[in-house]
Design brief:
Length: 83
């Protein structure tokens, strides 16, 4: 996965896609990105998890969903103690 949000409007149209549920028609996947390093060496982004939400409707997600889920991902990245 790329370290960017993926909106899949129709999972059947994406080759190789494996849905968690047979009823899934669309999904959004948002990476949770943590920065590792220090102020002397510098920081590197690291994907530590994803928010993966499925929908039973085609085109179930839009830019508003993306914006708010990305905000949630940033909050999780700052709030958790990632190993």
């Amino acid at each position: 996965m790329k370290a960017e949000t993926q909106i899949v409007p129709d999972v059947e149209a994406r080759p190789g896609h494996i849905a968690c549920d047979g009823a899934t028609k669309s999904e959004i996947v948002v990476p949770i990105i943590d920065q590792v390093g220090d102020k002397y060496v510098g920081y590197v982004d690291r994907v530590v998890g994803v928010i993966d939400v499925d929908c039973a409707d085609l085109e179930g997600f839009d830019e508003v969903d993306k914006e708010w889920l990305e905000r949630l991902a940033k909050l999780l990245a700052r709030s958790c103690d990632w190993p």
